[in-house]
Design goal:
The protein has 17 helices and no strands. By secondary structure, the protein is mainly alpha-helical. It has two domains: 3-205, no CATH class; 218-407, Orthogonal Bundle (Clc chloride channel).
Length: 417
C-alpha cells in the first residue's frame, strides 16, 4: 500500500511516532557527547593565543587513532543527510560506524557539529524499522524524512527550522505538498517537545549570543547585501580548503589509523595554539561576540581562517560531523572582526548577516539558516530583514562564484558534500 492510500490521520500518527524515534536517537547521541565532554574537558577553554595545554594534543591524538581504528574495522562513511532529508533515501550500512566515529569526533574536540550524525542516527533507525516491517520504498522514504525532521526539530531547538529545511531541500524535487508538510511539522514538534522535556537546558542555544540592538535604517539592507557577498567568498574558501585537504588525505586512504592519528596530532597542535578552533563553535561564538575588541581583530580573523581549515581537514581525514555550527562561528567571528576594524558597521548587523551568509553559500537552505541565526542571536523584529537579505545574497553570490571558477580551467571547481 502506498502512502497515498493511507488515511491522513494515520500518516500524522506515523509522523509523530517516527519524529519521537528520531528525537530519541538524537537525544541519546547528544547525551553521550555531553557526558564525554564533561569527563574529558572539565575546564573552560581560554580563547587567547597559545593558551591550550598538552591535554588537547593528547586527547585529539588518541581520538584520531580511535577514529582510524573504527574505519579499519567497519564501513563508516558519512552520508549526505541534507540530501537524505530531501529524498528520504539513506544508506543504512555505514550508519553505525559513522555515528560511532561522530561520537569520538565531537567528544574529542574536533571542529564539527552534531547535525549530520544525529540525522544519520535518526534516519538509520527509521530505515531499520522500515526494513523490519517490510514497508514499501515510498513509505520507507517518508519514515526516514520524518525521523530526521524529528531529530532536528529538537536539535535546532525550533520545530519550524526543521520544517523550513524540508521545504528548501525538497523544493527542487517538487515533492512538497500539504500532506508532507503537515507530517514534517508534526515530526518536528514532537522532536522539539521531547528534547525540551528531557533537557530544557538544550534550548539555551536560543539567544546564545547577546548583541546590542542597532537602529535599523535602509542603508543597513545594502550593508547586509555586501556582507552576503563577503560571506559567499568565505564559503567558497571553505569549499576550496575542503578540496585541498581531500587531496592531502588521499595518500592515506589505505591507512585509516595512520590518517586519523596524523590528523589528531595536527589538529591537536592547532587547538593548543588557537583554542577557538576546538569543538563545534557555539562557545567560541560567545567569546568572539561578547567583547571582540579585547580579543583583537588579528586573533579573531586567524581563528576564523584556521577554524575553516580545521573543519575541512576533519571532514577530509575521516572524521564525522556537520559543518553548520563551525560555519556559523566562522561567519560570526568574521562579523565581529569587521566591527572592530570598521566600527561604523554595527556589531549585531555584521555578526548576524555573516552567520547566515557563510553557511548559506555552502548549503542551499538560506531561509533555514537565517531563521537559525535569528534564534541564536535573538534578532529584533525589524533587523531580521538584514539577516534574510544576507543569507539569500550569500547563496546567490556563492553559486555565481562557483560557476565562474568552473569556467576557469586553471581553478579547481569548489565542491563540498
Amino acid at each position: 500500500m502506498s502512502s497515498a492510500d493511507t488515511p491522513w490521520s494515520v500518516q500524522l500518527g506515523l509522523a509523530a511516532a517516527l519524529g519521537a524515534i528520531g528525537a530519541g536517537s538524537a537525544l541519546a547521541f547528544v547525551a553521550v557527547v555531553s557526558a564525554g565532554e564533561r569527563l574529558l574537558w572539565p575546564d573552560p577553554i581560554d580563547p587567547d593565543w597559545f593558551s591550550g595545554s598538552i591535554r588537547i594534543l593528547v586527547i585529539m591524538t588518541v581520538a584520531g587513532s580511535i577514529v582510524g581504528l573504527i574505519h579499519s574495522l567497519v564501513a563508516a562513511e558519512e552520508e549526505n543527510v541534507f540530501e537524505a532529508l530531501g529524498t528520504g533515501k539513506l544508506a543504512l550500512r555505514p550508519v553505525p560506524g559513522a555515528v560511532a566515529i561522530a561520537l569520538v569526533t565531537l567528544v574529542g574536540g574536533f571542529s564539527l557539529g552534531p547535525e549530520v550524525p544525529t540525522g544519520m542516527a535518526a534516519g538509520g533507525m527509521a530505515g531499520w524499522l522500515a526494513s523490519r516491517r517490510k514497508l514499501s520504498s515510498e513509505e520507507s522514504e517518508l519514515a526516514t524524512r520524518s525521523a530526521i525532521t524529528g531529530a532536528w526539530g529538537g536539535l535546532f531547538t525550533a520545530p519550524f527550522t526543521a520544517v523550513l529545511l524540508n521545504i528548501e531541500l525538497g523544493f527542487d524535487k517538487r515533492v512538497i505538498g500539504w500532506t508532507r508538510l503537515s507530517m514534517d511539522a508534526t515530526a518536528a514538534m514532537v522532536g522539539f517537545a521531547i528534547f525540551f522535556a528531557v533537557t530544557a537546558s538544550w534550548s539555551d542555544v536560543l539567544s546564545l549570543v547577546d548583541l546590542a540592538p542597532y537602529e535599523f535604517r535602509l542603508r543597513h539592507v545594502a550593508m547586509a547585501a555586501g556582507l552576503g557577498v563577503l560571506g559567499a567568498v568565505m564559503g567558497t574558501l571553505f569549499k576550496l580548503l575542503t578540496l585541498g585537504t581531500r587531496r592531502l588525505a588521499a595518500p592515506f586512504a589505505g591507512h585509516p589509523i595512520v590518517r586519523g592519528t596524523f590528523a589528531g596530532v595536527v589538529l591537536g597542535l592547532v587547538g593548543m595554539a588557537l583554542p577557538l578552533t576546538l569543538f563545534l563553535g557555539t562557545e567560541g561564538l560567545v567569546d568572539v561576540t561578547d567583547d571582540p575588541e579585547s580579543l583583537g581583530a588579528g586573533l579573531i580573523l586567524t581563528s576564523v581562517a584556521i577554524k575553516l581549515l580545521a573543519t575541512s581537514g576533519a571532514l577530509s581525514f575521516g572524521f564525522v560531523g556537520g559543518p553548520v555550527f563551525p560555519l556559523l562561528f566562522a561567519g560570526g567571528g568574521l562579523g565581529a572582526a569587521i566591527n572592530v576594524l570598521v566600527p561604523g558597521v554595527p556589531l549585531a548587523l555584521a555578526v548576524t548577516a555573516l552567520m547566515a551568509a557563510v553557511p548559506a553559500s555552502v548549503i542551499p537552505v538560506p531561509l533555514s539558516l537565517a531563521t537559525l541565526t535569528i534564534l541564536i542571536a535573538g534578532v529584533g523584529a525589524t533587523e531580521v530583514t538584514a539577516v534574510f537579505v544576507a543569507a539569500v545574497v550569500g547563496l546567490i553570490a556563492g553559486r555565481l562564484i562557483e560557476t565562474a571558477l568552473r569556467r576557469d580551467p586553471s581553478s579547481p571547481a569548489p565542491a563540498v558534500s
